[in-house]
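pasting for ref
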Amino acid sequence: MKNNNKVDRLYKTDYVLVDNNYQPVEGLDTCYHLTSVEWLLDEYFMHELEMCVIEDKINTLRKEGELLFDTSTLLVSMTRLPKEVQDAYIKFYNDNICMFSEDQLLSKV
């Protein structure tokens, strides 16, 4: 069954891990909504950060749109990515849209 939903834009509350050149370090199928960033930070730092430190990092991410994740990786809002990278994500989502349920589509976030 063909899904007629199309992703036409990305959202500032969705984040991806990128290198210093703003190129994705994970597959195009991986992005993190703001609500999952706390989990991502907690897992990455192996539960060693206090919750107040994680909350500070999330607040920085909200305010700045990006956060230094480690020495060579940034967590960046999808709307701050270079246009060609944004276009690659949009194309990927539209080419693979039947893989996702309706509530998983970026256009529904």
